[in-house]
Each structure stands twice: as structure tokens, then as C-alpha cells.
Amino acid sequence: MSKQQPTQFINPETPGYVGFANLPNQVHRKSVKKGFEFTLMVVGESGLGKSTLINSLFLTDLYPERVIPGAAEKIERTVQIEASTVEIEERGVKLRLTVVDTPGYGDAINCRDCFKTIISYIDEQFERYLHDESGLNRRHIIDNRVHCCFYFISPFGHGLKPLDVAFMKAIHNKVNIVPVIAKADTLTLKERERLKKRILDEIEEHSIKIYHLPDAESDEDEDFKEQTRLLKASIPFSVVGSNQLIEAKGKKVRGRLYPWGVVEVENPEHNDFLKLRTMLITHMQDLQEVTQDLHYENFRSERLKRGGRKVENEDMNKDQILLEKEAELRRMQEMIARMQAQMQLQLQGGDGDSGVHGHHV
Ligand SMILES: Nc1nc2c(ncn2[C@@H]2O[C@H](COP(=O)(O)OP(=O)(O)OP(=O)(O)O)[C@@H](O)[C@H]2O)c(=O)[nH]1
Ligand SMILES: [Mg+2]
């Protein structure tokens, strides 16, 4: 890792300071005035630390003085989709952040069901937005569309699993995927680099579309350009999460205590957690724009093609269509049988001395 990284990704002020108020320097003032509405989702195999990470990411971290209900030290297995919304204000800039935690899937081969609820959730938010957008009160639509999805990849495998490939492909036209390697503390630096490369190769090989950070505009300052380059080079971010505050170097830090030392979550030398958060904050607006211009547009045009039929009922519709087709086929077969019978009758009746002797049907 390069020597400059710590200064670039370290939290500048209090531990609870995220830094999105600095956005005016980097993004348009317009959306800063309006405030941001942003939804982040986490998806991946069970036990990879999704719930732990999102707790570290914003919900508890942001309010060190407040007790957040549900953010207990020990996180239980997530069993249903849970969306929590926090409204944060930093230096007059408002952010309404929703974090959608999803139940991790297991090793079962038939995981279509767990895919389905997550995909339906994404579609439902599009659906709701479309509905609100075509309503009368268009000025005050609450945007709950999923703007970004952290896809958790196991550090224990040798790359992507078939399920990862299938899942990412199932959602890549609906949401901005940011791949992350979970539990990076279980990997050596060499192993991390190898796994990162492998995952990127496999993403390419399987034509999985992940979110691409746009290059910094030429008029941005050099620091921001350098930051963007570093962020790009870090994908897939390898992260560590923890809900424990540990004494290290005389202060309390979020970390994981091992016999040989402490892995600090917010130490860029230890893992990419801060890079991931910086990426999210500095690219919040771009993630929103891609959601609107690409994913939502996809959804909308699909809906129009279906003549307004709901996308969320896709599978149900497929079954229904199949049933209808079968019924139609049966009707046609019956019709053909009737026509054949009639032709036979005509043949026998109209051409009496042709010597055809058949039974009347
Ligand atoms: N080594 C290590 N363990 C972690 C890390 N993050 C979380 N864990 C541990 O992994 C276990 C599972 O964490 P969870 O956050 O519940 O995982 P999850 O992905 O939300 O799991 P499901 O809710 O079942 O999908 C817990 O015991 C965590 O303490 C990490 O970065 N490194
Ligand atoms: Mg969980």
C-alpha cells in the first residue's frame, strides 16, 4: 500500500463525522440544497459480516453519543429484509439514508427464493417510484430506490462462487453493484491482492456489470483525482467490520482483538473500510444518477413493453402465461379434431360412391 493513503482516507474530525458535508466542493450545489435521499443495500452469503459492517458504516458510528436500538454488540443472523432510515445533518447538508440489510443465503443449491425476495424488494421500490411519479403530487416523492448494493464475497473461496455469479447477474441491470471482500482480516496482504485480481477477472469473464467509478473531471483538484484513482484501484474493497470498541494506542477504536494485535476497522493500512465509505460518500450523487438514468429507465421501459403489467409479478405471470398457452393449445387441438371429423363426414356424405366405407363419427 502506498504511503499517502492514511492522510487521504482518515476521518478528519470527530469519530462521528462522515464527511458528506464536504460534498459541495465535489458535486453540484443543487442536490446539496435539496438534501440527499440515499438507499444502500447489502447482499451476500450468510455470516459474511453484512450486518456488522453496516453498523460500523453509518448507523452507530454516526451517533457515538446515542444508543441505537437494535445495534447490540452481538448481531443475530438476519432473517428478513430490514430497512432502517436515519436522517443525518452535517453543516446544514441533509442526508436521508436508508440501509437495507438482507438475510444472507446459505449453501443450498436452490437459492432462488432468497434471490426472489431481494429482487422483489428492488423492483417494488422502482414500482413505488413509478407510481408516485405518475401521481399528482410529484414534487414530494420519497425516493426509496436502491442506489447501491454492496455485494459481499467470501474470503475463504478462491474467487466467485456460482451463486455469486448468478446473483450478481440477476441484479446487475437493476442496481449499482459494488463488490466487497468480507472479513479481510482473515487474509494476508498477498492473498487479498490475489483474490481481488481473481474476482475482477471472473467479473469480466462472466460479463457481470458492476458500478464503475467515473474518472474525476479535469477541473477537480489534484487530491480528489488522486483519491478517485486510489479508490478505483481498490475494487473490490476488502473490508473488516466490528461492533466492538477496543483500546489501541491509547484511544478507543472500532476493531477486532486477536492474540497478536488489533485489526482497526478505520485504519486504511489495515483494510479498505474507509475507502469504501469514502467511495460511497463522494459518489453518492453519481450512484443516484446512474440509478435514475440507467436502472430506473430500464425498469420503466420494461414496464411499458409489458403494457403496464407489474414486473414484480414476473414469475407469477410466467406461470400464468404458460397455463394460458396450454389452454389455448388444448382448444386448438380440439378444434382440429372437430374439423377432421367434419371433413370425414363430408367426404362420406358428399361422395357416396367413392367406395370409402368409414364409421360415422
Ligand atoms: N473475522 C471477521 N469476522 C467478522 C467480520 N465482520 C463480522 N464478523 C463476524 O461474523 C459473524 C457474522 O456476522 P454478521 O454481521 O451477523 O453476518 P451477516 O452477513 O449479517 O449474516 P446473515 O445475517 O446470516 O446474512 C459474527 O460473529 C461477526 O462478529 C470481519 O470483518 N472479520
Ligand atoms: Mg445479517
TrEMBL record:
One of its GO terms (cellular component) is ciliary membrane. Keywords: Cell cycle, Cell division, Cell membrane, Cell projection, Cytoplasm, Cytoskeleton, GTP-binding, Membrane, Mitosis, Nucleotide-binding. One of its GO terms (molecular function) is GTP binding. The keyword S-adenosyl-L-methionine does not apply. Its main location: membrane. Residues 34-306 form the Septin-type G domain. CDD domains: CDC_Septin (cd01850). GO terms for biological process: cell division. It comes from the Eukaryota. It is found in: Cell projection, Cilium membrane; Cleavage furrow; Cytoplasm, Cytoskeleton, Spindle; Midbody. Transmembrane segments: none annotated. The record marks F156 as: Important for dimerization. Belongs to the TRAFAC class TrmE-Era-EngA-EngB-Septin-like GTPase superfamily. Septin GTPase family. Filament-forming cytoskeletal GTPase. Septins polymerize into heterooligomeric protein complexes that form filaments. This is Septin.
